[in-house]
Amino acid sequence: MTSQKSSILFLKIVQSKPQPNPMKRAVFLCLFLIIHLLCFSQKYDSITGEVKNFPGGRVYLASFYGEYTRPFDSLLAGSNGKMTFALADSRPAGYYRLILAKDHYVDLIFNHENIIFKTDFNHLLDSLVIIHSLDNQVYYAFLPFIKSNRMKVDLLSTMVDLYPEDDPFYRDLCRQYQKEQRALKRYIDSIARLFPDSYVTKVMKAQQKPFMGCDLHDDQRVDFLKDHFWETVDLNDTSLLRSNVLTNLCIEYLSLYGNSKFNQEQLQNAFVQAVDKILAASMVNEVTYNFMLEYLLKGFEKYHFDAVIDHLAVNYLPADKCENEGLDAEVLRRLENYQKLSVGRPAPAITLNDINNNPIDLTRIRSQYILILFWASWCPHCAVILPKLKDLYDKKTYDMEIVAISVDRDEKDYKEAIEKGHYNWINGSELQGWNGKTPLDYNVYATPTMFLLDRERLIIAKPITFNELVKDLTGISKSGSPPSKVNQ
Predict the structure, then answer these.
(1) pLDDT in tens, 318-361
(2) Distance in angstroms (rounded) separating the CA atoms of residues 106 and 74
(3) Domain limits for position 384
(4) Which tens digit of pLDDT belongs to each residue from 243-292?
């Protein structure tokens, strides 16, 4: 209902017979004015789209926070593909995603202006036309430019590395290499001069890279980027968190430290250096720093990089919780647990009953080694590793007891898996999935997860694979003591 129509309706009501007494009319007037102000004081912008070949169905509008998207509105669109979403003026500027179907979406920049676009459901990006929205017109013109520019810079850098420096053409290559780097900066600077307050300008500025001369070659160029990568990114601007810009930059930066020749330990050591650089750069702003810390923690959890996680827990957990109240409580809890779960620390006590309803007490296990294994009946990786562990356990090559904690919820599935596998070690489960006390105490977020303890119940290794477990057991048995890092 428009403001004009509501006013006409109000006049008709108050002029109708019989008239209420003056006091009631005054109360009615006040109530109407309050409702009127609440309904029409809020400004709205809109996202209007027309999607050719749209099959029809529910469309969702989601906001970004880093790489994560959260739907907050939806509508049912017909096969004509026409849709309109209203966005309150209080909505923050940033990336928004129209989710049309699984793996079918359009990303747009909302910066408090109406957005009108057309596209084809079968070719969403290639056929996208921005009819109205300055930020999106600039953004979608910028994407092919930066893609082409980076391809040229990468090719030219390779040619500069390989071409003989004493050849006259080498100077032409150098000039072109530097010209292409400057071209991106000139492009971004020209947009910034025209639209200094636009969100797209912030996004584009974050895509710049430090200028590199021809005197830098291959590994030197990588080292230079490691040291100067974040200098061109405004990490003090928290509005960038309303996009996936910073998370994409994180991935790009971490890739500088990757090496296909590295083993797991070498790769983790390299990533430890990377996270130190990222978090040092992020300290200019507490909100950005907390975001980066949480993002890195979740990312390395996903890939089971325990050495990097331990480093984050030991070095970046606030000594006083009050020092960092902005850090998410769940992230803080996990960091605290990771610190307790570092190699060399005592393993948390386990307080649950085994499958025979007897209490599990680590202090009563007198084996030289204790392997705490978290698994699930539905886990395909567990189905591979558990038979290998059973073979190792039954051969008694090592004086080792296994305490297997299931993160199952279904008791029948849990017991059937144990019976089928003939797992005659210590079995237990709270049947609460990931939310059981023991999985939470051990920060279990994937299965299988293993902790190798010594006779004193100190954590001496956190192997990821069966081969790593055997390697750890062999190494410790030969040396007669845990790895040196335990004693650090």
Answers:
(1) 755 444 455 678 788 888 888 889 889 999 999 999 999 999 99
(2) 14
(3) 362-487
(4) 999 999 999 999 999 998 998 889 999 999 999 999 999 999 999 999 99
Cα–Cα distance, 448 to 443 (Å, whole number): 12
pLDDT, average across residues 94-106: 97
Burial class (CB in 10 A: 0-12, 13-18, 19+), 38: exposed
Q: What are the structure tokens assigned to 276, written together?
A: 């130190």
- Per-residue pLDDT, 22: 54
What tokens does 291 get? 């975001």
List beta partners, residue 401. Answer: 370
CA trace torsion 429, 430, 431, 432 (10° rounding): -130
- Is 85 within a domain? yes
Q: Please give the model's pTM, rounded to 2 decimal places.
A: 0.78
Residues 369 and 259 placed together within one structural domain of the fold: no
- State the angle between helix axes of 264-282 and 306-316 in degrees (0 to 180), rounded to the nearest 10: 30
Separation of alpha carbons 263 and 49, rounded Å: 49
Bridge partners, residue 317, by sequence: none
CA distance 103 to 472: 42
Q: Same structural domain for residues 403 and 335?
A: no
| CB half-sphere exposure, 212, CA atoms < 13 A | 26
Long-range Cβ pairs for the range 355-363 (8 Å, 24+): 355/415, 355/418, 355/427, 355/428, 355/429, 360/403, 360/426, 360/428, 362/403, 362/453, 362/457, 363/457
Q: How many domains does the chain have?
A: 4
* pLDDT surpassing 60 at residue 33: no
- Cα 43 from chain centroid (whole Å): 32
DSSP-assigned letter for residue 372? E
